[in-house]
């Protein structure tokens, strides 16, 4: 994104060497990796700010209220030097403030609950959507699919024991919500893919006590999957409760 026309519909945006990051006016953000080679394409990654409420034993995703649901005292613009702070009020009456810091090669986002009118439990987090890295026609063989995903791989640090585990995208049968991988969540994830222009997306908790990252997938990684960070409830608003992310 090198033209201001490309930033229409955004509240703020940052342009970097390996990726751009922008906060849209509707309260959603976008990571746009920059391919290593000009001839390659890179998939965009959508970022959602998550506020959920526990209702009858289930977590329900709350939506931004239509009037005055988003507010900020920061001016609009490109490459702001100061931290960007905006607040989000959702159905159910919870209001959360999100503070964004631009680091040299990454961004950090820290949540803080400003208002909570519901008596139900709430949980706060950030969700990264990695959608259809590779599309299949439904008739491709396992061999063809493995060739398609090439050398793409996922690396993560298990929250349970701090051990680093790694798997290629071509391991089509892997279930990442098992003891072998991330049943108890991860403290960090790295996704390297040609679909990201040959780059690596890194997502890290500030500390092992700041929350957990879950990898959510209903099938092989070449399809749809999400990385969901949920902040530790009793740590929200504290100095070391934030998520960091970047593309290298």
Describe how the helices and strands are arranged.
Layout: E1 10-15, E2 19-24, E3 29-33, E4 45-55, E5 58-61, E6 70-71, E7 77-78, E8 84-89, E9 94-102, E10 107-116, E11 122-130, H1 142-149, E12 153-158, E13 164-168, E14 186-193, E15 199-205, E16 211-217, E17 225-231, E18 243-247
Parallel strand pairs: 1-7
Antiparallel strand pairs: 1-2, 2-3, 3-4, 4-5, 4-11, 6-8, 8-9, 9-10, 10-18, 11-17, 12-13, 12-14, 14-15, 15-18, 16-17
Structure description:
With 248 residues, the chain is mostly beta strands. It has one domain (1-139, 205-248). The protein is 3% helix and 46% strand. It contains one helix and 18 strands. It has one helix at residues 142-149; strands at 10-15, 19-24, 29-33, 45-55, 58-61, 70-71, 77-78, 84-89, 94-102, 107-116, 122-130, 153-158, 164-168, 186-193, 199-205, 211-217, 225-231, 243-247. The strands form two sheets. Strands 1, 2, 3, 4, 5, 7, 11, 16 and 17 form a nine-stranded mixed sheet that branches. A nine-stranded antiparallel sheet has the order 6-8-9-10-18-15-14-12-13, with no helix packed on it. The two termini are 17 Å apart. The mean pLDDT is 89.
